[in-house]
């Protein structure tokens, strides 16, 4: 069976914070994901969570979901800072 | 410009603090106690004639040329071996001395070929100089007697030759090999008149001997006996420029010795603070790639990677690229493009690449190859100490009492630092050598090398570093070896106590983890005691620590050990990551990670973003961008479509090749900016030619945070330095970027990044180099960090639970594959494979223990199939007991080996640094390359076709 790479990575983070002092565990997971996971990955994590596909998720990940920042709408099209129309 | 002539003081500097005043030729001279008369004279500007002495090594006293007279003493002592004494009155030139020297020189020259005019060392020969200095005008003995002339040259080394006819047996080469390099490959064979320098045994030549071709002997030779072949061919250089080597993270300083725009040779620079005048085979000699015929010098484009390349003008290539970028962003969104900056390029170059991505592309999809090597170092040391860098300078090793090497192979990966380490391990009269602990699955050279033997080698199973490091901590805590006063004063005490209770649990004891690590508990206990109680303890580590699914945890565990034993904040101690590439440290410092701006400041912090937003006149995205492995994932998913890849061969170097190639093939735009059509370029549709370190100005930051200048010695063959290429691309997408010189980029870095605030080209030119932090608090830089307090304030202990990797052996894949490097090759070999270095290592080999080999019917030199859950490749076997049973090992320097077809997509939990160091594999006899390798060879040939540009009308 193909493993769910995203959930696998979230669980890896949870595993590390399992040994953190009580109170710092789910916060550690949430902080880490907020700091290092780009919006696409966080969106995918929320998609699984919102759809109830959580059976493979480490309890600490589930506990952390509240504190994980929900990404805003996907990055809009049309790049800023590229003013020269002659190059379009 | 002229040739930089470094002063040779004849004997090494004395480190004594007490000084002595004496008189030499009527001048008063004050020097440190223990200085030789020769050196003291040179300090006063008086050059005593000499042949066997040079300041890179200890005095020897054999040539009898440097004799002097001392008032009140009998005879004529050698000035190199006679130490200064208070009130001494020394004469360096008297009638008696003149007669002695002339007599000595007369004897030397009576047995030396008189072919000065056609000799390669003409004008650069100390024997010639000394004949002149002593006024030798005739040789009364004639030249007919017994002599050593007409002996055959040894030209077996690709870079230098040995001409015994010109040898004066001064032993400088032998001593350089012993004292500076520490290889002990050379010896004086025979006695008296029959004495001759010999490499290895009498059956050897230089190539077949133990010689590692570091060049120390060539540099030491006062005659043309050991001479660079390049000098023989080209002639002597006429000017030189000090620059920094572009190979490993040691960052050696070299004099690039030139004739016009032709590089004659690279000579290590004695004032270089990383290398102190030493070099290795790569930096000293492996420069041929810079002028190799494979270099691509014109931009090329194609609509799809299945087509042949078309050579075009820079304008056409850049407008093609800019249009693609705009088109992709319009179709798929602002976040659909990104860049990868190179740890081989300068600080200034990686800074402009991240600026292009953040300010030009408008997202944070910028990563660097440090992702796949030292990103866990960044995370681990930042979490515990508060900054992402090693704590010491290289000089610090001279004050170390216990060296702990884990997951690093310095003699191959960081050879010049390894020589400095070996020197400390050997010790010297009055100062016994440092003790050595090696933790490595493989018996690396350092475990047992001439005059060095590890006190403890802990051959752990790959993937068990955290279990091992926590067990060491267990011993230190439970046996009461913690430096409590240091911990109380410098670290968070509550967190320490929690950590101490955690590591003290019985399940972390060496006995409990013995079945996991495979290392006898007794050995672990002894090693822990030695590290904790043996004096100044310093830990040196490499990718064997970081490239694991628990890489970051291991780095934290190392930091915990150093804090618990108080081995932080002074000379001789510390935590020292040995960085792979020349500018890994710099590329991380320069904001190449998707989550942080230059100076390791998180992108979500408003104040930090504002600094750059104000200067650049744009709004920056506050969300972290894609890391390299995420880029491949997103490309396969279809949301990431365009990548600018500067000087990195991701297809060859990143794990799980099939996943990487699927990602690359899915891109609509892949810009490869490189010297060569590398493996990644198979999937590219834009190729922008790059420049070598010889062709650009800038800075590299080495493993000790040292910012070294890179100076241009020749015009870029491709027309532009790499920062200019990036700048032209930025301009093509409409950015206002107009640097005239890299010093302007450094000025912007200093203005925006507090740890670089004082760095400028003026300061670097003045000091030679500085180590960051370099700012108001540390105006001239910081050789040692965390001296009075940690960068984060108090040091933070963090629990390190061992979690076994999910990459496990089983009945199908019973062996563990781990990977590493070899001295003569560098990284993916793009450079070193295009030099004479291939004679040492023309293919990757699989090391396998005799027991495992026999079980599988594999003999030395057989082709074997190497198979993992990810794929299979074929490689030649080398049967050796350097690896333990159950472990196999290979390097990844050659593209056809395709080792990364085997490696998996498991990665470090914190940073996604790939787990290169552990792959479960099976091995079986094979007839030759696999189908994948054959197909790959074809794909490569196919994708490298080039249609030349049509002639202009």
UniProtKB/TrEMBL annotation, chain A:
<dbReference type="InterPro" id="IPR021074">
    <property type="entry name" value="Formate_DH_dsu"/>
</dbReference>
<protein>
    <submittedName>
        <fullName>Formate dehydrogenase</fullName>
    </submittedName>
</protein>
<feature type="compositionally biased region" description="Polar residues">
    <location>
        <begin position="74"/>
        <end position="88"/>
    </location>
</feature>
<dbReference type="Pfam" id="PF11390">
    <property type="entry name" value="FdsD"/>
</dbReference>
<feature type="region of interest" description="Disordered">
    <location>
        <begin position="68"/>
        <end position="88"/>
    </location>
</feature>
Automatic annotation (TrEMBL), chain B:
<dbReference type="InterPro" id="IPR009010">
    <property type="entry name" value="Asp_de-COase-like_dom_sf"/>
</dbReference>
<dbReference type="GO" id="GO:0003954">
    <property type="term" value="F:NADH dehydrogenase activity"/>
</dbReference>
<dbReference type="Pfam" id="PF00384">
    <property type="entry name" value="Molybdopterin"/>
</dbReference>
<dbReference type="InterPro" id="IPR041924">
    <property type="entry name" value="Formate_Dh-H_N"/>
</dbReference>
<feature type="domain" description="4Fe-4S ferredoxin-type">
    <location>
        <begin position="158"/>
        <end position="189"/>
    </location>
</feature>
<dbReference type="InterPro" id="IPR017896">
    <property type="entry name" value="4Fe4S_Fe-S-bd"/>
</dbReference>
<keyword id="KW-0004">4Fe-4S</keyword>
<feature type="domain" description="4Fe-4S His(Cys)3-ligated-type">
    <location>
        <begin position="96"/>
        <end position="135"/>
    </location>
</feature>
<dbReference type="InterPro" id="IPR017900">
    <property type="entry name" value="4Fe4S_Fe_S_CS"/>
</dbReference>
<feature type="domain" description="4Fe-4S Mo/W bis-MGD-type">
    <location>
        <begin position="238"/>
        <end position="294"/>
    </location>
</feature>
<keyword id="KW-0560">Oxidoreductase</keyword>
<dbReference type="GO" id="GO:0015942">
    <property type="term" value="P:formate metabolic process"/>
</dbReference>
<dbReference type="InterPro" id="IPR019574">
    <property type="entry name" value="NADH_UbQ_OxRdtase_Gsu_4Fe4S-bd"/>
</dbReference>
<dbReference type="InterPro" id="IPR006656">
    <property type="entry name" value="Mopterin_OxRdtase"/>
</dbReference>
<dbReference type="GO" id="GO:0051537">
    <property type="term" value="F:2 iron, 2 sulfur cluster binding"/>
</dbReference>
<dbReference type="GO" id="GO:0008863">
    <property type="term" value="F:formate dehydrogenase (NAD+) activity"/>
</dbReference>
<dbReference type="Pfam" id="PF12838">
    <property type="entry name" value="Fer4_7"/>
</dbReference>
<feature type="domain" description="2Fe-2S ferredoxin-type">
    <location>
        <begin position="18"/>
        <end position="96"/>
    </location>
</feature>
<dbReference type="InterPro" id="IPR006963">
    <property type="entry name" value="Mopterin_OxRdtase_4Fe-4S_dom"/>
</dbReference>
<dbReference type="GO" id="GO:1990204">
    <property type="term" value="C:oxidoreductase complex"/>
</dbReference>
<keyword id="KW-0408">Iron</keyword>
<dbReference type="InterPro" id="IPR036010">
    <property type="entry name" value="2Fe-2S_ferredoxin-like_sf"/>
</dbReference>
């Amino acid at each position: 069976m193909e493993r769910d790479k995203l959930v696998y990575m979230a669980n890896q983070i949870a595993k590390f914070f399992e040994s953190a002092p009580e109170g710092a565990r789910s916060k550690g997971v949430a902080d880490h994901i907020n700091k290092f996971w780009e919006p696409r990955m966080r969106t995918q994590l929320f998609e699984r969570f919102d759809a109830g596909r959580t059976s493979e998720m480490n309890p600490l990940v589930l506990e952390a979901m509240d504190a994980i920042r929900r990404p805003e709408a996907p990055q809009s099209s049309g790049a800023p800072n590229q003013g020269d129309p002659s190059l379009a | 410009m002229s040739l930089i002539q470094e002063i040779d003081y004849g004997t090494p500097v004395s480190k004594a603090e007490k000084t002595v005043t004496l008189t030499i030729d009527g001048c008063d001279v004050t020097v440190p106690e223990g200085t030789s008369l020769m050196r003291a004279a040179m300090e006063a500007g008086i050059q005593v004639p000499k042949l066997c002495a040079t300041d890179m090594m200890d005095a020897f006293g054999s040539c009898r040329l440097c004799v002097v007279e001392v008032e009140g003493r009998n005879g004529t002592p050698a000035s190199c071996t006679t130490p200064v004494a208070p009130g001494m009155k020394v004469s360096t030139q008297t009638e008696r001395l003149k007669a002695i020297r002339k007599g000595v020189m007369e004897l030397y020259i009576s047995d030396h070929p008189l072919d000065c005019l056609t000799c390669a060392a003409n004008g650069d020969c100390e024997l010639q100089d000394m004949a002149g200095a002593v006024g030798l005008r005739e040789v009364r003995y004639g030249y007919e007697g017994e002599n050593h002339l007409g002996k055959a040259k040894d030209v077996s080394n690709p870079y230098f030759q040995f001409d015994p006819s010109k040898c004066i047996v001064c032993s400088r080469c032998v001593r350089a090999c012993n004292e500076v390099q520490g290889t002990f490959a050379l010896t004086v064979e025979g006695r008296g008149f029959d004495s001759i320098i010999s490499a290895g045994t009498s059956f050897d030549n230089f190539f077949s001997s133990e010689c590692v071709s570091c060049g120390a002997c060539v540099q030491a030779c006062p005659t043309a006996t050991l001479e660079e072949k390049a000098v023989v061919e080209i002639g002597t250089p006429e000017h030189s420029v000090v620059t920094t080597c572009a190979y490993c993270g040691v960052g050696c300083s070299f004099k690039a010795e030139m004739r016009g725009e032709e590089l004659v040779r690279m000579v290590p620079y004695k004032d270089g603070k990383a290398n102190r005048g030493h070099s290795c085979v790569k930096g000293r000699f492996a420069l041929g790639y810079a002028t190799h015929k494979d270099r691509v010098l014109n931009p090329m484009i194609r609509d799809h990677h299945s087509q042949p390349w078309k050579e075009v003008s820079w304008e056409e290539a850049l407008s093609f690229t800019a249009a693609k970028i705009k088109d992709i962003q319009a179709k798929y969104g602002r976040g659909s493009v990104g860049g990868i900056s190179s740890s081989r390029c300068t600080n200034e170059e990686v800074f402009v690449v991240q600026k292009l991505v953040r300010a030009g592309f408008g997202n944070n999809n910028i990563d660097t190859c440090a992702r796949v090597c030292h990103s866990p170092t960044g995370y681990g040391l930042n979490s515990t100490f508060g900054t992402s860098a090693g704590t010491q300078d290289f000089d610090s090793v001279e004050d170390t009492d216990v060296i702990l090497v884990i997951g690093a192979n310095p003699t191959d990966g960081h050879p010049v630092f390894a020589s400095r380490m070996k020197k400390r391990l050997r010790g010297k009269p009055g100062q016994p050598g440092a003790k050595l602990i090696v933790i490595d699955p493989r018996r690396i050279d350092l475990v047992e090398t001439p005059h060095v033997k590890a006190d403890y080698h802990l051959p752990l199973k790959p993937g068990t570093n955290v279990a091992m490091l926590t067990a060491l901590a267990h011993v230190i805590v439970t046996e009461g070896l913690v430096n409590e006063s240091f911990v109380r004063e410098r670290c968070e005490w509550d967190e320490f106590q929690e950590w101490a209770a955690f590591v003290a649990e019985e399940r972390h004891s060496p006995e409990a983890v013995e079945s996991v690590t495979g290392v006898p508990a007794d050995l672990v206990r002894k090693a822990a005691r030695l590290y904790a109680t043996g004096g100044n303890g310093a830990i040196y580590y490499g990718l064997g620590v970081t490239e694991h699914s628990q890489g970051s945890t291991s780095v934290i565990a190392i930091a915990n050990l150093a804090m618990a034993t108080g081995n932080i904040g002074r000379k001789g101690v510390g935590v020292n990551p040995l960085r792979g590439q020349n500018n890994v440290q710099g590329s991380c410092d320069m904001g190449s990670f998707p989550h942080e701006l230059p100076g390791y400041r998180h992108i979500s912090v408003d104040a930090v973003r504002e600094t750059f937003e104000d200067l650049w006149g744009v709004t920056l995205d506050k969300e972290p961008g894609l890391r390299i492995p995420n880029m491949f994932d997103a490309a396969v998913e279809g949301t990431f479509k365009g990548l600018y890849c500067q000087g990195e061969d991701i297809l060859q170097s990143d794990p799980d090749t099939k996943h990487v190639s699927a990602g690359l093939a899915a891109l609509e735009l892949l810009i490869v900016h490189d010297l060569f059509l590398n493996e990644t370029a198979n999937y590219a549709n834009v190729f922008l030619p790059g420049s070598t370190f010889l062709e650009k100005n800038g800075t590299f930051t080495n493993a000790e945070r040292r910012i070294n200048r890179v100076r241009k010695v020749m015009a870029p063959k491709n027309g532009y330095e790499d920062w200019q290429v990036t700048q032209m691309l930025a301009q093509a997408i409409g950015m206002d970027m107009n640097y005239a010189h890299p010093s302007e980029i450094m000025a912007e870095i200093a203005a925006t990044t507090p740890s670089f605030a004082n760095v400028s080209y003026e300061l670097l030119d003045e000091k030679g180099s500085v180590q960051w932090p370099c700012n108001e608090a540390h105006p001239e830089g910081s050789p040692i960090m965390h001296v009075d307090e940690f960068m984060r304030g108090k040091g933070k202990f963090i629990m390190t639970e061992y979690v076994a990797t999910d990459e496990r052996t089983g009945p199908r894949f019973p062996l563990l594959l781990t990977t590493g490097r070899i001295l003569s090759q560098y990284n993916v070999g793009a450079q070193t494979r295009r030099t004479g270095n291939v004679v040492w290592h023309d293919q990757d080999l699989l090391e396998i223990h005799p027991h495992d080999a026999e079980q599988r019917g594999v003999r030395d030199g057989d082709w074997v199939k190497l198979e993992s859950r990810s794929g299979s490749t074929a490689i030649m076997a080398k049967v050796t007991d350097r690896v333990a049973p159950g472990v196999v090992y290979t390097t990844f320097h050659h593209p056809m080996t395709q080792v990364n077809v085997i490696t998996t997509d498991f990665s470090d939990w914190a940073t996604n640094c790939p787990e290169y160091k552990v792959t479960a594999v099976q091995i079986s006899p094979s007839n030759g390359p696999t189908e994948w390798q054959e197909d790959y060879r074809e794909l490569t040939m196919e994708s490298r076709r080039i249609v030349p540009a049509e002639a202009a009308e």
